[in-house]
Amino acid sequence: MKRREFFKKAGVTVAGAAGAATLASPALSQGRTQWIGVSAFGKAGLLGAAYENFAKTVSTLTEGSLEIKLYHSGELVGGLEALDAVQSGTAQMGYGAPYYWAGKSDAISFVAAMPYGLNAQEQNAWFYYGGGIELADETSYNPLGLKFLPLGNSGNQMGGWYAKDINTVADLEGLKFRMPGLGGEVLKTFGVNVVLLPGSDVLPALTSGAIDGTEWIGPAADLGAGFFKVVKNYYYPGWHEPATVLDAFFDKGAWDSLNDTQRAAIEQAAMATNLGVLSRFQAVNNASLKKLVNEHGVQLKPYSDELLQAIGERTPEVTAELAKKSPEATKLYNSIVEWREGMVQWSGISEGKFMNARTSAPFKTI
Amino acid sequence: MKRREFFKKAGVTVAGAAGAATLASPALSQGRTQWIGVSAFGKAGLLGAAYENFAKTVSTLTEGSLEIKLYHSGELVGGLEALDAVQSGTAQMGYGAPYYWAGKSDAISFVAAMPYGLNAQEQNAWFYYGGGIELADETSYNPLGLKFLPLGNSGNQMGGWYAKDINTVADLEGLKFRMPGLGGEVLKTFGVNVVLLPGSDVLPALTSGAIDGTEWIGPAADLGAGFFKVVKNYYYPGWHEPATVLDAFFDKGAWDSLNDTQRAAIEQAAMATNLGVLSRFQAVNNASLKKLVNEHGVQLKPYSDELLQAIGERTPEVTAELAKKSPEATKLYNSIVEWREGMVQWSGISEGKFMNARTSAPFKTI
């Protein structure tokens, strides 16, 4: 989209007050900008609240020179149409998860999460100090006319809900399971009948037996989704989504026309939101997990070593094939794989070793 | 400090241009504010760069209505005098680590890090969604006339440098070791002669044999400090500092006199800096560790299970005694201990389990 088109579509409402030229105030002399922001998420949840807070913060930081009027999922366009809405100029920014836009790009799913890949801390290190944001832009967002910023992370997800126990590779054969993204591609190679369903259809499908199970997010979101009413076996860990990235995407023309203050406001508020969303998921998951187990009879179960090992050994074959689909996907994949190697080494002897060791300390309140 | 005193000390330089009253521009009508910021850290390192970037960002976000002129360690006052400088009104903000100010507060060291306590993700969850910032203020910073915000995290540190191998509890007896903070208090109970030395004195003390070892931060910072020239045994993990918090502290009167934009600018830039510092440590540690091992002959060694278990069992006794010193310390300690319990449960089945499982996946670049 061209710059002129953007200004028309973005609806610049104040071109500068009459006396503004006498003041050295960029916000006034360059006028006030109104954006429309769309979202793949509903207003009610944790992510809707984070998006509201982000827009409010940008307004406060720019003293109203950049206002983002938000439309959550279904309010202006459907949740999965958010990226289309920005590309068509209906909105100037959107909020979602990169793998929602897999139909638009062979590379973009690798920005979201890689099975057996990076945890949230390592993912953020790659984004901010490993060239990750620039590479996501170059390989995935810029070709779509967009600019990317991370706007939250789920942290390590849960493995999912199963009607029956699964312990062995043989138990996967013929299983009807809902799992989008790269994890689903891996499960297909084990004979799983991978089903893709919009969120609202998952509980009915579980209830009717149309599917044998589903992954979702983590305890807090899963409790709200109510899967515990139908199936009781809740597996961990979420090998398929170790730290799923939420993405903000901006019309590139709109982004480029921001002044320094506006751009800094978005960048700082986005980085703070990235940490805030991860922190909030981390803060609420355990209480929700307790409720699921203690009040709803959910059985918390680890994936067997056999399964974790077999799926882990298969995963790189599947992801490598997907990464060969385009030069952009290959470039992004190689960066993540290289980064992952160093992170597995460092986190293994620091965070990983520490988390195993600390269980020996019997802390009590006094 | 009273508000009037603050304005005098902070040196408000522009009270508003003559014509400003006719404009609805809070930044102009309330004038421009200049602060002085001091630091416990030198300009050259990762933390000095983060502090510079923070101040620059605040200036950009406020369009110059709040300028923070920085003086790094030794430039205006000594690094460990930073908090004194803010309390006396010489500066309006400071940067350091909470345990540097242990002489001022019985509670404040618990804000920094607890041996066998929270990792960085859990620590941030507590700060932002567990009431941690408010509790740190109430118990530790407000009583000193200050307002607190987290401004970075080291992530999991390394265990430290030792001239000789240590494998058993008996090896600790009589050891002369530099370790400040709560970890040092724990080691004392094992007969360690715990030594406190300013950073610049550590390498000379190691060289002369005045100490048998030292902890420092992590591979990147430790490489720069040059300890590898004298001792070669480098132990992990950093049970004593699983995720050390860096603190920003503000004169309470100065903080309270900020307008909404200025306060939001500091809060957002601080939260972004918090994530940025952690991300940068995470990004650079592994390459530094490789250099230490491959180019400088450093021996990377895990603490023995015997030591990790014995120290882990002793730690809560020691920290509980320290937390009994004042009602503020007790209140803060109990909040952290309760939070830790939920986090150990959740992180154990999510992040911890995942990090063990993912090593089976043989990713390669394509």
From TrEMBL, chains A, B:
**CDD domains assigned:** PBP2_TRAP_ketoacid_lactate_like (cd13604)
Give the UniProt keywords, A-Z: Signal
- Record keywords: Signal included? yes
Q: Which PANTHER family match?
A: EXTRACYTOPLASMIC SOLUTE RECEPTOR PROTEIN, PTHR33376
Stated name of the protein: C4-dicarboxylate ABC transporter
